[in-house]
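User: Quick sanity check before I run a bigger batch. Here is a single chain. Can you write out its predicted 3D structure?
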Amino acid sequence: MASKRKIVGNTAIVTPESSDLERLVPDLQNWPKSWSFEQQDIPFGQDLVKIFTPYLLHLLDSGYSRKTLHQHRDFIWMLGGRLVEERQLYRELRKLDARSILLRYIDEQDGGPLLDDRSEREQGLFDATCRKLCRFLNAA
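Assistant: Done. Predicted structure follows.
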């Protein structure tokens, strides 16, 4: 991809000439609102987007096909929505930061949380995305 990225610590800084991420996820800044059940969910969703953004940039640099990139993007969006839902259901999670909650729900072996109304194939693909995300976060 044509974008220029500089990694500082754990955070990717994207130069203005990079529109790759905007093409992959044009609505990224709207994700927190799309996941929210109530207004107080939005800051948590924004924190998730901050965690997901370096990973999405990493995917762009990995040479995946457009179809694969879109699949990973969609599963990351689904994961964010699921984490907001879990935080709604289990109020004790509200005491934890976004990264801690994320790492409670994904791991390098099982993948991610069980999705409702998804085929075994879709669950397997979702789990693969979650495993990749977990490896990325643990390596950072």
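The chain has one domain: 5-139.

User: Great, the batch can go ahead then.
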